[in-house]
């Protein structure tokens, strides 16, 4: 058996190691950080930042920063990004001290709520000012969370895009592909957290672990950076026989690379293979050969190998790349060129080549060629609509023919790679066929109808105004605000370039519109917890438990947060496991579809001690809040 000489991967003794810091912001960021903390595989400073002291109190990160303590009084931002931003502004000196002096700052947040969406851009700005490389890992909300959250997430994304050196976007909608349809939403979140934690772990390991074939920050940034597009990430880890092939298979199954499909369009692909002391040359070679069947010749491969004793007898494969918006639109709008099909006979550069030149340029980039126009109709995809312009729903594709792609964005379309080495096929290859070539039937995870939310919209106001506006009430709906209409959201096409990127395939395409226009759905108020509960008389306030900061002071009775402050006086057990004493479950209202989302009564594992963050008199009725409540909703 051939083994690597591990001596060659030792760093020069006088070369300082890269200092990395991972900042988790808000509820989602804190959950991911908890997972990383428990894994104990990342050598980085972990910092949790939140406005909500109850979440901070349970966070496992060694360093915690309460954002805007005086402004927020220990309460979450209630879904209001302005409050989250102001809270971060109030605490910017603490933030600066916490992240100063690091070479790389990873920022992890769930976009759509108040703290993460508002504070993350501020923190990214501070990190950039301290000359750190800023990598942002963010989630976009589930579509069922409502249009308001999506819009807030898009705003935050636009701001982050300007400040981050690289941005890995996880669409929660796609996380559904990681689990079985019958699994509860808690499992979806847990799986999503795990994937995000893996990405952070993989990226930070790549830059901090000495490797046989070392990847540098420039490699990583070039693989991750895209001015206006989407990062692709796949990670797989496996043990036992065929552990290399199995790890690669799992990495290719990642929903973030569309089950391997998106790799066929990448110009640069970073591949990192790591294993314990038993990692062999043959295993690495086999993984690279296998990967070569799914990557076109012209892709520039940045290849790294590391022996990491912490992996034990496991092998991990990390794939990182990015696709520009134009490429994504091209994929969505046109039938895939033949060179997107699995390239079963295409050899990859041998490992010897790779080790000889690190990073490895697998093959010279092929000269761009005109887009393949006569490809077989392998996939029928909806045409890409113009970005962010409300327009009538585009008519479904009439027949499975390779329709010419309409120009989805103002920029000139990127040239398509030449359809080289395209295996001749007598019959059209469906996506399922394509997956069959990769995996056995029972290994293909059922695909949820994908929907991307990576639109990048107009410029945001400056992050650092001279005088920040006074804090408004969290999540208070304004008169001008659009009503919360889930039905309309599901049905309506929100045409945007990025939506087009992941336009559903024929099997998921909605039914054609009926000839007569359906009556407009009734406009509903945004659901509140009051819709389900009615107050009972005479609650007796109990002494308030202390967390990491001074007890929140009650706000004026006019504030919707007043009820939250009052509720924090209740015993923790009541908060976590039973309805508050002053509440009784009310009769089920007729319009509560958002609540009928299949919450199971299983808890969130190690997060089970997390207190609920329900604003009983407020507006904070998001999914994570219900998850933290862990209360089985009875009808
Ligand atoms: N993948 C994943 N996404 C989450 C999780 N928790 C929340 N999210 C997503 O992140 C968005 C923001 O939720 P939070 O992070 O709880 O909100 P926040 O940033 O703390 O803001 P406030 O609660 O308003 O202070 C939600 O709309 C969800 O889409 C989680 O555990 N995993």
Automatic annotation (TrEMBL):
Ranges of biased composition (kind: Pro residues): 393-407, 513-522
Residues that bind GTP: 27-31, 114-116, 145, 149, 193
The keyword Protein biosynthesis appears for this protein: no
Annotated GO MF terms: GTP binding; GTPase activity
Segments of skewed composition (Acidic residues): 483-495
Cellular compartment(s): Cytoplasm
Domain of life of the organism encoding this protein: Bacteria
Record domain Tubulin/FtsZ 2-layer sandwich: where: 213-332
Tubulin/FtsZ GTPase domain residues: 19-211
Biased segments, Low complexity type: 367-389, 408-428, 467-482
Function description: Essential cell division protein that forms a contractile ring structure (Z ring) at the future cell division site. The regulation of the ring assembly controls the timing and the location of cell division. One of the functions of the FtsZ ring is to recruit other cell division proteins to the septum to produce a new cell wall between the dividing cells. Binds GTP and shows GTPase activity.
The family this protein is said to belong to: Belongs to the FtsZ family.
Self-association and partners: Homodimer. Polymerizes to form a dynamic ring structure in a strictly GTP-dependent manner. Interacts directly with several other division proteins.
Annotated protein name in UniProt: Cell division protein FtsZ
Gene: ftsZ
């Amino acid at each position: 058996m051939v083994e690597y000489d591990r001596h060659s991967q030792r760093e020069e003794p006088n070369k300082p190691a890269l200092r990395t810091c991972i900042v988790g912001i808000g509820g989602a960021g804190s959950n991911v950080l908890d997972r990383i903390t428990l894994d104990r595989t990342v050598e980085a400073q972990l910092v949790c930042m939140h406005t909500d002291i109850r979440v901070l109190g349970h966070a496992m990160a060694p360093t915690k920063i309460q954002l805007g303590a005086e402004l927020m009084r220990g309460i979450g931002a209630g879904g209001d990004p302005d409050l989250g931003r102001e809270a971060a502004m109030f605490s910017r000196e603490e933030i600066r001290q916490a992240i100063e002096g690091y070479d790389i700052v990873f920022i992890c947040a769930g976009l759509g709520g108040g703290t993460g969406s508002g504070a993350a851009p501020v923190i990214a700005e501070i990190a950039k000012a301290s000359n750190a490389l800023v990598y942002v890992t963010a989630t976009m909300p589930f579509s069922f969370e409502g249009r308001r959250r999506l819009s807030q997430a898009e705003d935050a994304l636009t701001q982050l895009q300007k400040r981050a050196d690289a941005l890995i976007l996880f669409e929660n909608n796609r996380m559904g592909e990681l689990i079985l349809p019958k699994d509860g939403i808690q499992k979806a979140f847990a799986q999503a957290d795990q994937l995000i934690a893996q990405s952070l772990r993989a990226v930070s390991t790549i830059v901090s672990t000495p490797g046989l074939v070392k990847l540098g920050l420039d490699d990583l940034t070039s693989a991750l950076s895209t001015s206006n597009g989407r990062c692709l990430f796949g990670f797989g880890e496996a043990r036992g026989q065929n552990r290399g092939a199995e790890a690669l298979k799992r990495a290719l199954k990642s929903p973030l690379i569309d089950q391997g499909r998106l790799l066929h369009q990448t110009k640069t692909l970073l591949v990192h293979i790591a294993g314990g002391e038993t990692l062999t040359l043959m295993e690495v070679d086999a993984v690279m050969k296998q990967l070569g069947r799914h990557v076109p010749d012209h892709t520039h491969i940045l290849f790294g190998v590391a022996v990491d004793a912490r992996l034990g007898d496991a092998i991990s494969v990390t794939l990182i790349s990015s696709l520009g918006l134009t490429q994504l639109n091209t994929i969505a709008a046109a039938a895939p060129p033949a060179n997107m099909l699995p390239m079963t006979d295409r050899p990859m550069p041998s490992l010897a080549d790779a080790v000889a030149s690190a990073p490895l340029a697998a093959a010279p980039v092929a000269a761009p060629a005109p887009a393949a126009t006569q490809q077989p109709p392998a996939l029928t995809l909806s045409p890409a609509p113009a970005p962010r312009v409300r327009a009538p729903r585009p008519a479904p594709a009439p027949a499975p023919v390779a329709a010419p792609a309409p120009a989805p964005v103002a920029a000139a379309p990127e040239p398509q790679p030449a359809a080289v080495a395209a295996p001749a096929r007598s019959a059209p290859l469906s996506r399922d066929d394509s997956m069959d070539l990769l995996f056995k039937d029972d290994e293909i995870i059922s695909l949820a109808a994908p929907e991307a939310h990576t639109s990048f919209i107009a410029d945001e106001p400056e992050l650092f105004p001279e005088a920040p506006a006074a804090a408004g009430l969290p999540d208070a709906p304004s008169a001008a605000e659009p009503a919360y209409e889930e039905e309309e959201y599901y049905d309506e096409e929100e045409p945007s370039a990025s939506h087009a990127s992941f336009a559903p395939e024929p099997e998921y395409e909605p039914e054609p519109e009926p000839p007569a226009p359906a009556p407009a759905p009734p406009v509903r108020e945004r659901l509140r917890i009051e819709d389900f509960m009615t107050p009972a008389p005479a609650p007796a306030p109990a002494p308030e438990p202390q967390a990491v900061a001074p007890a929140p002071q009650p706000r004026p009775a006019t504030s919707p947060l007043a009820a939250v402050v009052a509720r924090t006086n209740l015993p923790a057990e009541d908060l976590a496991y039973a309805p508050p004493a002053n509440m009784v479950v009310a009769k089920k209202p007729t319009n509560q579809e958002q609540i009928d989302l299949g919450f199971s009564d299983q808890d969130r594992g190690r997060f089970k001690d997390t207190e609920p963050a329900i604003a009983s008199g407020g507006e904070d009725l998001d999914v994570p809040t219900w998850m933290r409540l862990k209360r089985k909703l009875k009808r």
